[in-house]
Recover the amino acids of this structure.
């Protein structure tokens, strides 16, 4: 999950982990036929009664957020903890598709095996910023309105699963976390032994393998006092450890465009209180969260009716964030400025948007 804030305004957006399994996905059918038992089509993989409650808990929160226009859904093969795709990942995505179709017969499931992986030199495709974006591009080119990506990892005697549903406008619609009891066919399709190994330091990685994200309970003290006006434009990559009490226990700066911005970001995130992350079985666990904190400076031209007439980027870490910032502020509505005579007039207003982009 990502939270986009600007002054007292709070918007919600999402960025998933940058999975690196597209190249594996591109040759998946060949590799599976040589090294693994053939994965059954999702239509031929009925959901077992012992697993049905687990699949319901995973699938329903996603499907219930679909609108009446969301008819075409594609579930990509799930990646393992190393971001590789195997027959097991294809089997699990088939189970998601099957349960979704049972719960909502009106939707159309697109089989990912029918997708054509284009050559990298295809000039018609927009260059993606990650393999996750490329997978979504494949989904949209196939006519999907919802693309579901996810991953899995062994958890005790179950499989922990994370699912993320994306709309064709590249916004995250919903995510879901949980676990499914291990079944014989899961072991059959797995390319290696499914063995659960708890983290050595007891800290789980949020957002993957069925471990949910810690979520901020309220805006930070820094935001509430308006002190983010002191932030200059820039980008800070960091990791947080959030305890079971929701407190930030540790912050490590991984990369920063300036020491000043990094210092302010540390102060800001130490002021946050989170809901704790949960393991696939629903218990609260300490979790490590990787994120990027970014600031974009803009100058807005506010028309006499309060709409944003123009948004000009003054300073930004990169073009992607510039585009997202402009896209966000274009939707805003302001109380227009007034002249000494009391008439509404256009005005230019400097502002800043802070992005917090969480990733696995």
């Amino acid at each position: 999950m990502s939270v986009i804030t600007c002054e007292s305004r709070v918007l919600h957006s999402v960025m998933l982990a940058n999975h690196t399994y597209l190249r594996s996905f591109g040759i998946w059918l060949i590799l599976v036929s040589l090294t693994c038992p053939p994965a059954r089509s999702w239509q031929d993989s009925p959901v077992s009664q012992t697993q049905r409650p687990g699949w319901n808990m995973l699938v329903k929160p996603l499907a219930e957020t679909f609108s009446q226009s969301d008819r075409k859904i594609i579930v990509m093969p799930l990646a393992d903890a190393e971001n590789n795709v195997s027959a097991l990942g294809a089997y699990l995505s088939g189970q998601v598709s099957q349960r979704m179709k049972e719960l909502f017969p009106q939707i159309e499931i697109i089989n990912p095996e029918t997708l054509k992986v284009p050559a990298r030199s295809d000039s018609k495709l927009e260059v993606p910023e990650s393999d996750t974006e490329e997978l979504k591009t494949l989904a949209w080119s196939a006519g999907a309105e919802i693309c579901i990506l996810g991953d899995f990892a062994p958890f005790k005697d179950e499989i922990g699963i994370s699912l993320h549903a994306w709309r064709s406008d590249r916004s995250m619609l919903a995510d879901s976390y949980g676990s499914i009891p291990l079944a014989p066919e899961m072991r059959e399709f797995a390319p290696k032994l499914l063995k659960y190994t708890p983290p050595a330091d007891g800290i789980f990685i949020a957002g993957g393998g069925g471990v949910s994200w810690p979520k901020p309970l309220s805006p930070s003290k820094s935001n509430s006092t308006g002190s983010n006006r002191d932030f200059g434009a820039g980008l800070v990559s960091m990791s947080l450890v959030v305890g079971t009490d929701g407190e930030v226990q540790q912050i490590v700066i991984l990369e920063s465009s300036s020491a000043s911005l990094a210092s302010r970001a540390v102060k800001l995130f130490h002021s946050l209180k989170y809901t704790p992350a949960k393991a696939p079985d629903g218990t609260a666990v300490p979790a490590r969260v990787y994120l990027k904190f970014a600031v974009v400076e803009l100058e807005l031209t506010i028309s006499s009716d309060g709409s944003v007439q123009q948004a000009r980027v003054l300073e930004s870490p990169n073009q992607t964030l510039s585009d997202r910032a402009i896209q966000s502020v274009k939707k805003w509505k302001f109380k227009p400025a007034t002249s000494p005579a009391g008439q509404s007039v256009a005005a230019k207003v400097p502002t800043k948007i802070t992005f917090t982009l969480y990733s696995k």
User: Anything to note?
Assistant: The first strand starts at residue 2 and ends at 6. Residues 1-39, 121-128, 220-228 have pLDDT under 50 and may be disordered. The chain has two domains: 1-15+207-360, 18-200.
